[in-house]
């Protein structure tokens, strides 16, 4: 097919739908425009890609303030645009993730949450937004697990599992740092707000030698000093190298309870982990049907390691 016969009509249709969406006088008109846009994007994926940025910049500001039904349609369109545009949506990732998480936090409408999950899944799969959403929004993982626990709908549970898989596995140590940094930032902002309020109250007016009162709204030097202090705190807190630094970790049955450190590089760790799992099966009377398989697994595991199994013979 000759693009010259298609692109002008397609562009005219996209401009017309975006104009109608921008000047729609009711939610019904907006929903109809969004529905037509979504059909157009899904039907002409390769042809629509040059206009993905314009469509997305028109849709994104309307997601947060839209009613639940209209917001669901907008998020469905975002999912379709992510599939078509891919990396073209990366510049909008900050605003997009904020809108998606806001929709996921809305417990009043299951359809809206389902659309938000599909949009987040497609953004992770086709736009490369993996791992970073957990760092930028540490509450995201808790929101997803809460949906998984509280929602009886199997379709939504399956979509949550797909979304978690698409977002990828994050290093637990890095995730803890993200949570602690968020907490520290919130505490610092609260202290700064309180101290700024007190400073403004005490230095709101100054009397000069002539007896005239002069008003001062704030002290810029104090703000600069605060900025330097924050930078120093960040510099004094170097990132730990979990690949080279050995950590003293609490052990339960010879297995570290923390999920980072150099212990994982030790071959004996995996053997110890497997032996403990099999012994728990043997010690549990409710798992008698698996006792034979557990003994066979122990024999199969100890055969190649030979002398390396000596530390575990006492427990077996």
Describe the structure.
By secondary structure, the chain is mainly alpha-helical. The strands form two sheets. The protein has a two-stranded antiparallel sheet with strand order 1-2. The chain has a two-stranded antiparallel ribbon with strand order 3-4. The chain has 15 helices and four strands. The chain is elongated and about 80 Å long.
**How would you classify the helix and strand content by structural class?**
mainly alpha
Strand order of the largest sheet: 1-2
* C-alpha-based Rg, rounded: 29 Å
The low-confidence parts are 201-265
Order of helices and strands: HHHHHHHHHHHEEHEEHHH
Overall average pLDDT = 75
Summarize the amount of helix as a percent range. 55-70%
Oligomer: single chain
Q: How many H/I helices?
A: 15
Strand percentage: under 5%
Shape designation: elongated
Distance between the termini: 72 Å
What is the tally of beta strands?
4
Biggest sheet, open or closed, and with what strands and sense? 2 strands, antiparallel
Compact summary:
The chain is mainly alpha-helical and 316 residues long. It is 65% helix and 3% strand. It has a two-stranded antiparallel sheet. The chain has a two-stranded antiparallel ribbon with strand order 3-4.
